[in-house]
Design goal:
binds magnesium ion, binds adenosine-5'-triphosphate, alpha/beta, Rossmann fold, ABC transporter transmembrane region fold
Length: 608
């Protein structure tokens, strides 16, 4: 029990704290569209005063009508025309203003959504690769991404809150004027409903929060079962039912927990609503009796009944709007926490530009590396030099740290111990952007952009996307030009299946486009991580002859499991357990009869 109370207190504190999120987010909103914001607020202020105006005019009308009805057949008082016209004007103006407010709300929603999405993209681009490989961070990003743009209703709610507040004040002034006690009774009756509302809204948030991992699993299963990438394998393995059952199992868990909360909410909500009704109708009865006693006019009765009704509903509205806002403000925590994640790998205050002409090359000195949260030394005191103009092949069995080494050279990660140097200077002393400008990497799991052929090449050096000559040249070097010749729209052909008129390519064809990117990049160090895994033998052979020619005099790092490719390099480095097992030319390594010779023999014998 004490625990439950404690968690309630904490819940309250969290929620009050979450309101801190509002100013920075309001800042974003204001920046996104200042004029729309200001217009919306001004209009809401006007609209907020209309209910009081309508009631006040209504009171005058009824008093005149009651007086006139006392002597039948008398002349119609002229004032009544003016009052009717006034009542009509209030309604008409209210109608128009509300439409304009809808318009400003919609505009604001659009602008906010655009601003937040852009900021999320901008910020995501600055973050470490490590963040993206961390599931906890990924949950946060997911919540920020999906929910933050859904927080738009909160903005409108804030506007509404201001409006309801002004209406409440204006109406309650009317009620307080006649009887302060009436107002207090009403207020007290609404408080329980407010507490109930906010309590359940918080429980809803906690539930949604704790369900995020399950939801991610659901999204994954649904994607897996319905997307093209998985279709082939799922069909031949007959996995449809298995996936659906897993999906159903998790969905049941989610639904059961949601349902339990909804039920509690219905019961408590009804009970508290009942208390509020008692407050309102008790006050109303009191007013009716006073009118019958002749202490209030009929006009006063309608005015007060209207004002009471209005105050009561405004108080409830304000509380529920406020709860909604506090609830949504909690979600904003995700967004702001996401924005607060800072990259650890970043350019130092004083940083050097990368050398335009690399003189001494790259050097790993006693580099050890562990992935965050893992005990295993993926690289262990590794020493390796890449001299200018040297083409190195990195070979080794799966999981020996080849790709990891590439991530360290390109500063996607920093070493746990030791350091990587370029021309004798620690990589961490260079400006990252400038360093990465000199490095062209095509990873094993390179991206297949659902964009045009030109863009698939041009992303290698996006500044030169419009340079037709450069794109064509890169395509020729990688033999992507042969694929281009067969595409109906050539360079402008949309690739991939995601968009209309897109043409899908084979794995090897995609790889040729990835290679073209590497050539388009025209960097001082070219790194290809298994660039030919999907290529057929003739393509591979030819590409490597060209690669050897094209990279002559340049630094290149090539990771491959194919010895036909590897043997063309100046030096072959065999990586094992994060250390260099042996190195030398193809012939030297064969002659020494070590690990490389074994692996070569194994591959060669399978062709005999
Ligand atoms: N993001 C990561 N977080 C934790 N561990 C990782 C991560 N990426 C790789 N590893 C681990 O580091 C080790 C080396 O991985 P790496 O990708 O460098 O191997 P590789 O030599 O490129 O293998 P392959 O030939 O299969 O491409 C592996 O045991 C892998 O499990
Ligand atoms: Mg790898």
């Amino acid at each position: 029990m004490a625990n439950a109370v404690n968690s309630q207190v904490k819940a309250w504190r969290d929620r009050v704290k979450a309101l801190k999120n509002l100013p920075p987010v309001l800042g974003i909103v204001w920046k996104a569209a200042p004029v729309v914001c200001a217009t919306g607020l001004a209009l809401r202020f006007l609209v907020a005063l209309l209910p009081l105006a309508a009631l006040a005019i209504g009171r005058l009308i009824i008093n005149i009508v009651v007086a006139a009805a006392a002597h039948h057949g008398g002349p119609i008082p002229t004032a009544i025309w003016w009052l009717l016209a006034g009542e009509f004007a209030v309604a008409a103006v209210g109608n128009i203003l509300n439409r304009v407010i809808d318009y400003t709300d919609a505009r604001l929603a659009d602008e906010f959504s655009r601003e937040v999405s852009e900021r999320i993209m901008r910020h995501a681009a600055t973050l470490d690769l490590q963040s993206f490989e961390d599931p906890v961070f990924y949950d946060k990003l997911e919540r920020a991404r999906v929910q933050a743009t859904d927080r738009i209703s909160m903005l409108n709610a804030l506007g509404r809150l201001a409006q309801q507040f002004i209406t409440l004040i204006s109406l309650s002034l009317g009620v307080v004027f006649y009887s302060p006690i009436l107002f207090v009774i009403l207020f007290v009756c609404v408080v329980p409903a407010f507490i109930g509302e906010s309590h359940f809204a918080f429980l809803g948030y906690s539930l949604a929060f704790s369900l995020t991992p399950l939801r991610r699993q659901l999204d994954y299963l649904r994607d897996l079962a319905t997307k093209r990438e998985g279709a082939k394998e799922l069909k031949v393995f007959g996995l449809g039912d298995y996936l659906r059952e897993r999906f159903a199992g998790i969905t049941n868990q989610v639904l059961t927990r949601n349902r339990a909360l909804l039920k509690r909410r219905v019961i408590a909500g009804s009970a508290l609503g009942f208390v509020s009704s008692i407050g309102y109708y008790g006050s109303y009865a009191w007013l009716v009796i006073r009118t019958l006693e002749g202490r209030l006019s009929v006009g006063d009765l309608t005015f007060l009944a209207g004002a009471l009704q209005g105050t009561s509903s405004q108080i409830q509205l304000i509380f529920s709007t406020f709860t909604g806002i506090a609830d949504q403000a909690l979600f904003l925590t995700d967004l702001l926490e996401f924005f607060a994640v800072k990259p650890r790998i970043k350019t130092r205050e004083v940083a050097l530009p990368a050398p335009r002409h690399i003189q001494e090359g790259f050097e790993f000195r006693k580099v050890s590396f562990q992935y965050p949260g893992s005990e295993r030394l993926v690289l262990n005191q590794l020493d390796l030099r890449i001299h200018p103009g040297e083409r190195i092949a990195l070979v080794g069995e799966n999981g020996q740290g080849k790709t990891t080494l590439v991530k360290l050279i390109s500063r996607l990660y920093d070493p746990t111990n030791g350091a990587v140097f370029l021309d004798g200077i620690d990589l961490r002393d260079y400006d990252i952007e400038s360093l990465q400008h000199e490095i062209g990497v095509i990873f094993q799991d390179f991206v297949r952009y659902d964009m045009t052929a030109r863009e698939n090449i041009g992303v290698g050096r996006i500044e030169h996307l419009g340079d037709e000559g450069r794109m064509t040249e890169a395509a020729e070097k990688s033999r992507a030009s042969e694929i281009l010749a067969k595409l109906p729209h050539g360079m402008d052909q949309m690739l991939g299946r995601r968009f209309e008129s897109g043409v899908d390519l084979s794995g090897g064809e995609w790889q040729k486009f990835a290679l073209a990117r590497a050539y388009a990049r025209d960097a001082q160090l070219l790194i290809l991580d298994e660039p030919t895994a999907a290529l057929d033998a003739p393509s591979e052979y030819e590409i490597f002859l060209r690669f050897a020619e094209l990279t002559l005099g340049k630094m290149a790092l090539l990771i491959s499991h194919r010895f036909s490719t590897v043997r063309m390099c100046d030096r072959i480095v065999v990586l094992e357990n994060g250390m260099i097992r042996e190195q030398g030319t193809h012939q030297q390594l064969l002659d020494s009869g070590g690990r490389y010779a074994d692996m070569f023999e194994l591959q060669a014998s399978s062709y005999r």
